Amino acid sequence: MILHRTIPAKRLLALLASVCMATAMGACSPNGDSQSQQQPSSQSSATADAGNVAIFAPTDSITISQQTPLSKWEKLVPEIVSSLKRTGVKSGDITVKTASNLDKQSQSVQDYVVNHINGTEHSSTKAKTTLVVAPVAEMPESDRQYGDYARHDITWNSDASDEDEQDYAQSAQRLVSALQLAQNEGMKVVLISNTLQGYAPDVYVPMTTAEQIGELQAKELVNKLELDKASSDAPKQIEVLLPYDAADGHDAKTDTSFAQNMFKGIWKVLEPYFKDGKAASPSETLTASTTKDDWRSVAFDSSKAEQIKSVLAERLDADKDDSHPVHLDGVISCNDYVAKNIADELDKLGYTGSSADINPSISISGIVDSITGKKDLKRQAVPDPAKTSSSNDDSDSDNKENAKWPIITGYGAYISSMPNIVNGKQWMTAMENRKALADDIAQTCVRLNTSGKLSKLGFIRSATVEGKKITTIHEETLAISADNLKKTLIEPGYISLADAGL
């Protein structure tokens, strides 16, 4: 197959300028599945100089489970649109397009840019246009369990011999050329989450990386279990369950980089405690000699819920003797889909209580009262979980102690996980600060279309992207547990009391 190279930006402009007047081009590619919508133009409060904003986002990914994380494109895009309107952009000047793959998205962006260039006589109008682009990334099923925003950088090999890789490279290069063309014509580009190989936008909106997700959960576990106060005489018992898509022979090229980076973040935090003997793994999948490259020792195929449960049962030797539970202090589940199945299996294996039991100052009734507004919740320092009895004459006491519920971490803020957060079965989850990001992106677009000055915006930072220092939008990831669920999710309107099982 001959790879049709993407036309460089300047040549593309010259070519299209000569033919576009004779060729009718739609708002989106006729062979794509992009959904395009221009907002109704009735808005009296919009200012006249806020410019145009075009949003290009992926369609929501579909997961094998029926559980849905709060980090979905179908949630973020409407919030950006609403924020744009509040910030002064006319409804008729906002365009939204979605696509299911990079090929269709690149066609859609190219069509918009060319149409906008040829349909706009004044350069000042072009300069008042910002493209907000979230590049479509191909993700393994296990990566989708973290939500739509988790960062997947887009790279390609222009000289690849594989036909699919050639097509992908062509699509990616088309998107980059279209964005560069837009910038050359005075338009601005805000890139969300996934970077593009060799491309530098005007503003970048970084989302949480796999390494950051792993590091966040490990830090939350360390703090909750007070590992700094643990000793080698009574190490905390920790398991890590790392989901990934195992190659099945038909797809030997399955990308495992997300899982690898996830473990890298986890082990960056936990390694010192394992080396000092303050932490151990009941299954011995993690030891003092484990390195960040040993991710496969804790990885498993998470394509089916029963596989998650069976892996945990095997780690705890439950198939050998379920009458003597294994003492377990904490489980890093990586995402809420895995966490839910771990909680179900622990319940089946006879583990009792909740993460709230590890902190006597917090009771389940106190958590519920706090969330429903009956009283404020005040936390005190977390004491060490009770140590396993060493008496050989009191096996019943040992079993009861060993069967105490461990700390379980997750990520994604699945609506279906909220009841488990409230009742303490899952200690914490996390998600992007979606509403704040929507407001930030809207303010950035208007500033780019008007004054161009971003430095006075409180959320503006800078970072190196593709070797170039770029302006970035920064919001902290939301770490969510029962004691702050009301403030972080219910009051801002992410979920309702009913979603939390109340």
From TrEMBL:
UniProt key word Signal: yes
PROSITE patterns attached to this UniProt entry: PROKAR_LIPOPROTEIN
Keywords annotated in UniProt: Signal
InterPro entries in alphabetical order: Peripla_BP_I
UniProt superkingdom: Bacteria
Transmembrane segments: none
Protein name listed in UniProt: Periplasmic binding protein domain-containing protein
Upper taxonomic lineage: Bacteria, Bacillati, Actinomycetota, Actinomycetes, Bifidobacteriales
